[in-house]
Amino acid sequence: MQIIPAIDLLEGHCVRLHQGDYGQVTRFSDDPVAQALEWQRQGAERLHLVDLDGAKTGQPLNDQAIRAITAALEIPVQLGGGVRSVNRAEELLALGIERVILGTVAVEQPALVLQLAERHPGRILVGIDANKGQVATRGWLEQSSVAATELAASFEGSGVAAIISTDIATDGTLAGPNLEALRSMAAASSIPVIASGGIGDLADLLSLLPLEPLGVAAVIVGRALYDGTVNLAEALQAIGPARLQDPAIAQGQSRPC
Questions:
Q1: What are the φ/ψ torsions at residue 147 (nearest 5 degrees)?
Q2: Are 99 and 78 in contact (CB under 8 A)?
Q3: Are strands 2-10 and 216-221 parallel, antiparallel or unpaired?
């Protein structure tokens, strides 16, 4: 299972929100490039970027930082937040972003997701952010009536590379992942699932391993890394041996991301 460290950008700074609330912001670093390089140094194989300004306003306010991060890193970068047009998605791909995450438009303009997935195989992800099972959009500021599992199922066979499943209630809380929600999301389609939200310590990461054969292929970790309750290098070392102790995983029954 891949562990993907997250950097959330707000006005060019590395921050975390509590349960997606822009009124509860903790700033961790004023140098996102240095932070990205530190995660790479500790062994990260991929970086997860969120443009919080883009998610909230739809405007590309953090492109300078995004350019600098992608230029500095050797590992691939995936990015979401405010990507609501074909032009914006392709602009980010041209900047060096390996995979673009589409969230709001997956609900409002699903045809756009299908178009991009066809034009850029393996480079389009769908971000499904759920509050009590229902999808939230526009930086989690609006609540839809769409069920998260139904949205996931609607992209079956579309060429979408993965679904990032975020549980808003646990995001930024360190309270542990919503395992039942992840299990339901993995069952909804054959598209690999990337878990996001609630990771507080190594035990939380290990709790996801039984879901790997079901299709939960990776996990995004944010606040726990910044708070120090998870050490990335140690977690990467621990996941491998623990993974091999699970018979289903050891037999290669998991789906690649």
A1: -75, 135
A2: yes
A3: parallel
d(CA 197, CA 93): 25
How far, in whole angstroms, is CA 12 from its chain's centroid? Answer: 19
Distance set, CA 48 to CA 59, 73, 194, 225, 253 (Å) = 19, 12, 11, 13, 26
Query: Which residues are tagged catalytic?
Result: 8, 129
Local structure of residue 210 (DSSP, 8 states): G
**CB distance 49 to 77 below 8 Å:** yes
Domains and CATH numbers, the chain: 2-250 (3.20.20.70)
Residues 230 and 10: their CA atoms lie apart, in Å, by: 23
Would you say the pTM of this structure is higher than 0.90? no
Q: Where are the alpha helices (DSSP H) in 24-120?
A: 32-41, 52-57, 63-72, 86-95, 104-108, 110-119
Q: Where are the beta strands (DSSP E) in the chain?
A: 2-10, 13-18, 21-29, 47-51, 77-80, 99-102, 124-131, 134-137, 142-147, 162-167, 193-196, 216-221
184-228 pLDDT tens trace: 999 999 999 999 989 999 999 999 999 999 999 999 999 999 999
- CA 233, 216, 35, 69 dihedral sign is positive
For residue 159, give the DSSP letter. -
Residue whose C-alpha is closest to residue 185's, from 162, 209, 161: 162
| CB 134 within 8 Å of CB 147 | yes
List the beta bridge partners of residue 127. Answer: 164
| Arithmetic mean of pLDDT, 53-58 | 81
- Yes or no: say if 83 and 113 are a contact pair by the CB < 8 Å rule: no
